[in-house]
Amino acid sequence: MTFPWSRLAARGSWQGAWRAARRAQEARLLAPIAALGGAVWAFMKIASEVLEGEAHALDLSVLLWCRVDGMPDQPRGPLWLQEGMRDLTALGSPAVLAFAVLAVWGGLMLARQRSMAWLALGSAVGGQALALALKAVFSRDRPDAVFHATVAA
Fold it and tell me: Which end of the chain, N or C, is more open, meaning fewer C-beta atoms within 10 Å of its C-beta?
């Protein structure tokens, strides 16, 4: 009894199938590398614009768009939206992030997934260190034209 692949191998189709599989594997490896290269290029382009001070006008226009025309101390939108945005912004505070990371770390340790717990903690600490380093490198002032008013609850 002969197997179907033995007939294909006899005709030389294995080499074609091997080449096609090899090209697919190369494409799967090349796509993330190309995406990473594109992300690095975009970061470097934006970083050069920020360092040259050319991004300041964009920052100012976006911040002014979020304010009522002619009244830069008055945020746009109803009061509930302003309060919601303030509360959403507070979720990124160091205290809330530290609590969330430690809760995840503790949960993973209780689940006996120690390597995942240390990976999560290391990722969070590394991300915070990277953010602080980038803030130090790109230290730029906040726009003065917009008042940073918030609704006190």
Answer: N
Residue 49 has a CB neighbour count (10 Å cut-off) of 13
The H or E element spanning position 68 is strand 67-68
Q: Do residues 70 and 145 make contact, with C-beta atoms less than 8 angstroms apart?
A: no
Q: Are 71 and 147 in contact (CB under 8 A)?
A: no
Judge whether 57 and 65 are in contact, CB under 8 Å.
Answer: no
Residue type, 67: R
- 146 touches 63 (CB < 8 A): yes
Which residues are registered as beta bridge partners of 74?
A: none
- The distance in angstroms from the start CA to the end CA of the chain is 82
Structure tokens at 64: 């002014």
Contact 135, 61 (CB under 8 A): no
SS (H, E, C) 74-108: EECCCHHHHHHHHHHHHCCCHHHHHHHHHHHHHHH
Q: What is the DSSP string of 126-142?
A: HHHHHHHHHHHHT--PP
